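Researcher: We're teaching a course module on how sequence relates to structure. For the next exercise, students receive a sequence and then see the predicted structure as tokens, so they can try to spot secondary structure elements on their own. Here is the exercise chain.
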Amino acid sequence: MAKEIKVQIILGSTRQGRYGEKVFKWINDLASKRKDFKVESIDLKDWNIPFLNDPMPPSMGKYSDTIVQKWAKKIEEADAYLIVTPEYNHGYSAVLKNALDVIYKEWTNKPITFVSYGGYVGGSRAVEQLRQVAVELQMAPIREAVFIPMIWQAFDENGKLKGEEDYNKRAESMLNQLIWWAKALKEARSKTK
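Model: And here is the predicted structure for the students to work with:
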């Protein structure tokens, strides 16, 4: 088994003026300091993934659209995922749901966690729904996540997360669990090939 673990951090919003960019930068900067895995940042704004319309279900592993094929190849490269997600109307963004739905086997048997942001509950309702989607994709959603409430006032005028030390502790604990599962599942996947 290759020792290097690759974590893709995915920004799950493409909205103009999104608060997610600050959250994305914070978690990327923190994760990039770690030596026990390699980080790749993916912004869904950079991917023009068409809405799912293949006649065959993605679980069949045949994707007719070239962008979806490229997306599948990109996602397959990772051993674990961290999704930065907003909460819209007690749920997550349509663009994120589509990015998850258009492919299947590339997600399977890999761990996933979330950093969410929103109003009073910090995006926790979006994460609860995303965990259900992850289970259906045969992923391993870990328990630990980071929730940032009142996102419109969570960062200071310099773009620094208020209470960053506490958020960093929670994020480090989350990343420790994500990497534990990434190593375990990578080992298991290597035995089934």
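Model: If you want an answer key for the exercise: Strands lie at 6-11, 38-43, 80-86, 111-117, 140-141, 146-148. The longest strand covers residues 80-86.
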